TrEMBL record:
One of its GO terms (molecular function) is DNA binding. InterPro entries: Aminotransferase_I/II_large (IPR004839), HTH_trans_reg/aminotransferase (IPR051446), PyrdxlP-dep_Trfase (IPR015424), PyrdxlP-dep_Trfase_major (IPR015421), PyrdxlP-dep_Trfase_small (IPR015422), Tscrpt_reg_HTH_GntR (IPR000524), WH-like_DNA-bd_sf (IPR036388), WH_DNA-bd_sf (IPR036390). The keyword rRNA processing does not apply. It comes from Limnobaculum zhutongyuii. This is PLP-dependent aminotransferase family protein. Keywords: Aminotransferase, DNA-binding, Pyridoxal phosphate, Transcription, Transcription regulation, Transferase.
Length: 484
């Protein structure tokens, strides 16, 4: 009898919280009363409230935050599955390229609050002090590094440490297969130059990382947008159809933690994609920039892990996880390795030895995995925080992705809210965001934008998100609402 009574009590407490959320008394992001306070107010035991809160956690209604308490989880609808057809082959639109330049200009203005640039800002995101100590030690012990040219293939120590880590992504590479690059962007550019010629057609995810669109235009390539699911990544069925019809000469994809959707392809899709690439002998450039920021336990293997004949070029860097301004990335070129080495030497020779050795030493000490674990937890937490802010301040009908890793969220507004107009309205108030049109060569996604969660969540940042939400709400009002 007593057990049944206790069971009834904790469910009553839990249902009371749910009802408060339904009526709007408690909203997404609100802190629940402490366990002791709730027990006193409801005249029940601490164990009863604790059982109620755990029940609500299991139901996904609230979440516990270490040393902070319990909070209402965001009940933000997720982005619908993509149902777009394959977009016809085209050159990137000029207005898309112009808008990319405008966004970059705003993001570099120190007077602006940036809520969109996917570049972490703040010492909590990088092990700057540890890297600084290693760098200073190297300068003291080997000062001649400053006066010595760095020549290809670059730091052996760093290449060995990178090779040692590749099994975490399902690959088995040697130091000789690693080409150091000036960040991931140089790796992607070198890869495109190695496998394309002007007029070729490149298959891109839709939406895709906007700088890829600029690279396509710069190299005189055409683009074809391929449907990409907000949870499972690119449509392999659509890719297979394009390969059969010989409509694409190369693919450029982000299978793990795609930018801007944050989705990751299932393993079976990765295996199937690699098999298709080998079957049709079409190269793929795999952007693995966020591969180590996956939130789930074991990292998903790269598509390159299933590539038997070397048709996949894997590119990534340490700019998002270790040292942004070091600009050190790497690539593994498979059957295109020799051509890529020559292109790298002609492009920028090699990466600075002192910086590469610093990263190599840091990786040797084993501090990287500890750093990554903390980083993943922080981004997962901040992503939920941001979704709560969107749920609270943006217009009804707004949807957002639930990313599998990284720190960017794709936000889709009601159809009558123009993302470019929202961008300009925010710009007038010194807030920089990235409208959805930038992520499509053909200028799709007019009602979307990308939000970055790689900043310190202080009052300044939160106020910027709130203000953008208010601007979106104003734009979402119909003429009848405004008259009323």
């Amino acid at each position: 009898m007593s057990d049944n009574h206790d069971l009834s009590l904790y469910l009553q407490v839990a249902d009371g919280v749910v009802e408060s959320i339904r009526r709007g008394v408690l909203q997404a992001g609100d802190r629940l009363p402490s366990i002791r306070h709730a027990a006193r107010n409801r005249n029940v035991s601490i164990n009863t409230v604790l059982a109620a809160y755990r029940n609500l956690e299991d139901r996904g209604v609230i979440e516990a935050r270490p040393q902070s308490g319990y909070y209402v989880r965001a009940r933000l609808p997720e982005v619908h599955k993509t149902a777009m057809p394959v977009t016809p082959v085209s050159s990137p639109k000029l207005e898309v390229l112009d808008l990319i330049d405008m966004v970059f200009a705003a993001q570099q203005n120190p007077k602006f609050t940036d809520i969109s640039l996917a570049c972490p800002v703040g010492e909590e995101f990088y092990p700057a002090k540890k890297l600084s100590r290693i760098l200073n030690q190297l300068l003291r012990s080997k000062p001649d590094m400053i006066g010595t040219y760095s020549l290809p293939p670059g730091s052996l120590r760093l290449r060995q440490q990178i090779a040692r880590r590749t099994p975490l992504l399902g690959m088995s590479l040697s130091a000789d297969e690693i080409i150091l690059t000036h960040g991931c962007l140089e790796a992607l550019q070198l890869a495109l130059r190695a496998v394309t010629k002007p007029g070729d057609c490149i298959g891109l995810e839709s939406p895709t990382y906007f700088y890829m669109i600029s690279m396509v235009a710069m190299l005189g390539l055409n683009a074809i947008e391929i449907p990409t699911d907000s949870q499972h990544g690119i449509s392999v069925d659509a890719v297979e159809a394009l390969l059969k019809e010989k409509k694409i000469d190369v693919l450029m994809l982000m299978p793990s933690v795609q930018n801007p959707l944050g989705c990751s392809m299932p393993i079976e899709d990765r295996q199937r994609l690699a098999k298709l690439l080998n079957q049709y002998q079409v190269p793929m450039i795999e952007d693995g920039l966020y591969s180590e920021l996956q939130f789930s336990g074991d990292l998903q293997p790269a598509v390159k892990a299933f590539d038997k004949d070397g048709w996949v070029i894997f590119c990534t860097s340490f700019t998002k996880t270790l040292a942004a301004d070091f600009r050190i990335g790497w690539m593994s070129g498979g059957r295109f390795a020799e051509k890529l080495r020559r292109l790298k030497a002609l492009s920028s020779m090699s990466e600075p030895t002192i910086l590469a050795e610093t990263l190599g030493q840091f990786l040797t000490t084993g501090g990287y995995d500890h750093h990554l674990r903390g980083l993943r937890k922080r981004y997962a937490f901040q992503m939920q925080e941001a979704r709560g802010l969107i749920a609270r301040y943006f217009p009804q009908g707004t949807r957002a992705t639930q990313p599998s890793g990284g720190f960017v969220i794709w936000v889709e507004l009601p159809l009558n809210v123009d993302g470019v107009k929202l961008f300009h309205a925010a710009l007038a108030e010194h807030i920089s965001l990235t409208p959805g049109m930038l992520f499509s060569p053909s200028g799709r996604y007019a009602n979307a934008f990308r939000l970055s969660c790689c900043y310190t969540f202080n009052e300044h940042y939160i106020a910027a998100i709130k203000r953008v939400g208010e601007l979106a709400c104003e734009m979402a009002l119909s003429p009848e609402d405004i008259k009323a």
